[in-house]
């Protein structure tokens, strides 16, 4: 596999570079971290989070794993943020946003970004 080999999430279709996003799992179909978080929550809740909305109703706010702490975009390649104790928090960021913010540290081979 090449350094810039791209992977596509089987659920949301986000494309990532294997080396940039840290794709270690080579199983197929592959899920991004945000979709994995949603799948884990759905398993705990006992069903799909996708609900049919009535015409004219307001769609629910994006779940935490679809909201970046650094920008308003809700799509893209997200990673969770760890706190100072190394625990995964409920906050998420785009990998590219984390790379541009001096207070965030991207550690190679980790599944999260340190804040």
Describe the structure.
Helix content is 20%, strand content 19%. The chain has 115 residues and is an alpha+beta fold. It has one domain. The strands form two sheets. A four-stranded mixed sheet has the order 4-3-6-5. It has a two-stranded antiparallel sheet with strand order 1-2. The protein starts with 5 loop residues before the first strand and ends with a strand. The model is unreliable at 49-54 (pLDDT under 50). Keywords: Metal-binding, Zinc, Zinc-finger. Residues 9-36 form the PHD-type domain. This is PHD-type domain-containing protein. It comes from Octactis speculum.
Write the layout of secondary structure elements.
Elements (H helix, E strand, L loop, with lengths): L5 E3 L6 E3 H4 L11 H13 L32 E5 L5 E7 H6 L4 E2 L6 E2 L1
């Amino acid at each position: 596999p090449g350094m810039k080999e791209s992977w596509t999430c089987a659920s949301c279709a986000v494309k990532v570079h294997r080396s940039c996003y840290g794709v270690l799992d080579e199983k197929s179909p592959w899920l991004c971290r945000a979709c994995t978080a949603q799948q884990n929550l759905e398993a705990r809740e006992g069903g799909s989070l996708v609900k049919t909305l009535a015409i004219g109703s307001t769609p629910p706010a994006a779940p935490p794993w679809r909201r970046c702490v650094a920008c308003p975009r809700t799509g893209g390649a997200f990673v969770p943020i760890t706190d100072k104790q190394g625990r995964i928090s409920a906050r998420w960021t785009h990998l590219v946003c984390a790379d541009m913010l001096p207070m965030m540290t991207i550690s190679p081979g980790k599944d999260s970004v340190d804040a």
